[in-house]
Amino acid sequence: SQQGEEDPQALSIQEGENATMNCSYKTSINNLQWYRQNSGRGLVHLILIRSNEREKHSGRLRVTLDTSKKSSSLLITASRAADTASYFCATVTSGSRLTFGEGTQLTVNP
Amino acid sequence: GAVVSQHPSRVICKSGTSVKIECRSLDFQATTMFWYRQFPKQSLMLMATSNEGSKATYEQGVEKDKFLINHASLTLSTLTVTSAHPEDSSFYICSASKISGSSYNSPLHFGNGTRLTVT
Q: Which of A40, A45, A96 faces B108 most closely, judged by CB atoms?
């Protein structure tokens, strides 16, 4: 079953703006991962955040994790047209597999 | 590095034929590989977990006799769609982890997927 639910399903912004995508989940997790998928391609790993971490940064990406609310957010700052893609969160529960959310389709308009 | 190569990228076949998709880890050894299926604008659904030298573990609802998985070496897993039907048309993606024994606690590296169309 798909544990992660993401919102919004689609997001359209202008270049230079920030993009925020949210992911909620239902059960306790070991870690949460964010992936990016360009149309018709495989997924690329962006960030992994463990359950005892609250925030991680990687370049223009910032991920937060709130285990009390069972939610995570991915912030892309100063977005570029090349950031246009689908973004998926994926949760790992103890002793279980990686389960992907439904994804957010981000469009960055030049 | 951590490159996963998937081949072919696109394949069109007729109903009733079989199609083999290869997934190779090019610069690392992968004791575990995963096969996913993705419908348009939807998420990835795990089909099976492929373990080198042993039988694959299939997810509930996935027919193991239809989707044959072989993981004969540490760098190669294959998925064969047997007696393909139009409803098998989909995007199939493989992935692998560089770290064995804790595959779910490290990033997965994905192939670029195979677009299968069954006519």
A: A45
